[in-house]
Amino acid sequence: YIPSSHWYDYYTGSLIQAKQEFITVNAPLETIPIFLQGGAIIPTQGYASNTKYSRNLIKKDLFDYI
Prior knowledge:
This protein has one helix at residues 51-54, and strands at residues 5-9, 15-18, 35-37, 44-45, 58-59. It is mainly beta. Strand 1 (5-9) and strand 2 (15-18) form a beta hairpin. InterPro entries: Glyco_hydro_31_C, Glyco_hydro_b. Pfam families: Glyco_hydro_31_3rd (PF21365). This is Glycosyl hydrolase family 31 C-terminal domain-containing protein.
């Protein structure tokens, strides 16, 4: 079930316009379907061996400012 809004596929960036409906998503077993709502700010952070170093790796991707 996806509420009515503009949603984006995390992996492809493709737009999904849902109208309060159930949708079927094709996804391989090793991939979890992730959808990001338009207008959301999604903080991301690069990998490092500890949090002190990873704080310097904050990413600014497309989905950070949807």
